[in-house]
Design goal:
Layout (H helix, E strand, L loop, with lengths): L1 E9 L3 H19 L2 E6 L4 H7 L5 H9 L2 E6 L18 H11 L4 E8 L11 H6 L1 E8 L9 E6 L2 E6 L5 H16 L4 E6 L5 H14 L6 E6 H10 L6 E4 L1 H15 L6 E5 L5 E5 L16 H13 L4 H16 L2 E2 L9 E2 L2 H12 L1
Parallel strand pairs: 1-2, 1-3, 3-12, 5-10, 8-9, 8-10, 13-14
Antiparallel strand pairs: 4-5, 4-11, 6-7, 11-12
The protein binds nicotinamide-adenine-dinucleotide (NAD).
């Protein structure tokens, strides 16, 4: 199979971690008989330095012509970098918003996995971390409170602010379909999170999710109120497989789920549209404090590449091989500095990439 991938190395540690992800992808392609075609584009600070804008229309067109986008990370030190003296629409992060909009990426997926070997990094009680967890938060990304009408007015001398939370059934249906499709590739359970005891938008959310569920009799559906979900994430995270939720709830819950893993350098993510197309990137930022030192953890980006193989290309066996390589390398005691613990072997970013590629076979 020919895989046409646009790469965005980006800023900070971005180029280092994307280089290692490509190394692992190339080895996977070699083993399974595929051809990787990479085209790099500039985004964020790297694009500002060359073109004066964080993302050009030509770069967007290149991304649109690809099957998927694999990204490192963008942005610099927000207090010292000259990029942050520019107008907001010219700053690095504006490139990210622009590409998400141009590619209609409405579904954001963030897995939160606790590996046995990294259980010590989990801030939860030992009896909870021992059980481990492997969940995926599916967050609606282009609707809801963050995109509704807003205004601040003064009425009778009193300041008042209004934000509106709107969803229509089509927006809910398309993310629910994604959630159930992905649950089918996992442990076949969807927990739909809402606030249906209070919000009309949540009552519609629940009704549409129920309708979609009828087409997936093999997937178990449960509903959970968002406040309860926030508690359950720290009380019993092992109960979750796919958490399906709207934009703001997903924003908060996905950060909570990430933090209970305790390892920011391990967390992958994907943003999908209604075709097979996706943008895959680590959940962390560009880590300018460690950029250029070859010490960043490339695993989040490598796992994002595995998600790309699974969700855009339906190459489950290849994705499994990458995920197994990550588990194997951790089991053998190799660690980058961010996940280092006593008795383990410290390796650099490129050494970690080499080890992962070797374990693909
Ligand atoms: P960050 O995630 O870059 O870094 C937070 C801390 O985690 C730092 O100490 C960093 O060294 C460490 N860290 C992060 N990733 C690591 C890795 N792979 N290996 C080892 N250590 C790692 O968050 P920040 O410092 O708040 O943001 C830095 C820049 O990244 C900012 O410009 C921010 O806007 C940008 N950012 C970009 C994205 C994106 O591109 N999607 C996401 C978040 C932040």
């Amino acid at each position: 199979m020919k895989l046409n991938i646009t790469c965005i190395p980006g800023d900070g540690i971005g180029p280092e971690i994307v280089r290692e992800a490509k190394k692992v992808l190339d080895r996977t392609a070699l083993k399974f008989g595929h051809e990787m075609i990479y085209t790099d584009i500039l985004m964020g600070g790297a694009s500002i330095d060359v073109h004066g804008v964080p993302l050009t229309d030509e770069a967007i067109q290149t991304a649109k012509n690809a099957d998927a986008v694999l990204m490192g990370s963008i942005g610099g030190d927000t207090t010292t970098s000259p990029w942050y003296k520019l107008a907001p629409e010219l700053r690095p992060e504006a490139g990210l918003l622009k590409i998400r909009k141009a590619l209609n990426l409405f579904a954001n997926l963030r897995p939160a996995v606790l590996y046995d070997e990294l259980a010590a990094a989990c801030p939860l009680k030992e009896e909870i971390s021992k059980a481990g967890f492997d969940m995926l938060i599916m967050r609606e990304l282009t609707g809801g409170l963050y995109f509704g009408e807003r205004k601040t007015v003064t009425e009778n001398g009193i300041r008042k602010a209004v934000d509106t939370l709107t969803y229509n059934e089509e927006e809910i249906r398309r993310i629910a379909v994604k959630g159930f499709d992905i649950a089918r590739k996992r442990r076949k359970k969807v927990t739909s999170v809402d606030k249906a005891n209070v919000l009309d938008s949540s009552r519609l959310w629940r009704a549409v999710v129920e309708e979609v569920a009828k087409n997936y009799p093999d997937v178990t559906l449960e509903h959970m109120l968002v406040d309860n979900c926030a508690m359950q994430l720290v009380k019993d995270p092992a109960q979750f497989d796919v958490i399906l939720t709207e934009n703001m709830f997903g924003d908060i819950l996905s950060d909570e789920a990430s933090m209970v893993t305790g390892s920011i350098g391990m967390l992958s993510s994907a943003s999908l549209n209604d075709t097979k197309f996706g943008l895959y990137e680590p959940s962390h930022g560009s880590a300018p404090d460690i950029a250029g030192k070859n010490i960043a953890n490339p695993i989040a980006t490598v796992l994002s590449a595995a998600m790309m193989l699974r969700f855009t290309f339906d190459l489950d066996e290849e994705a499994d091989a990458i995920e197994s390589a990550v588990k194997q390398v951790l089991k053998e005691g190799f660690r980058t500095v961010d996940i280092m613990s006593e008795g383990c072997k410290k390796v650099s970013c490129s050494e970690m990439g080499d080890l992962l590629a070797q374990r693909i076979g």
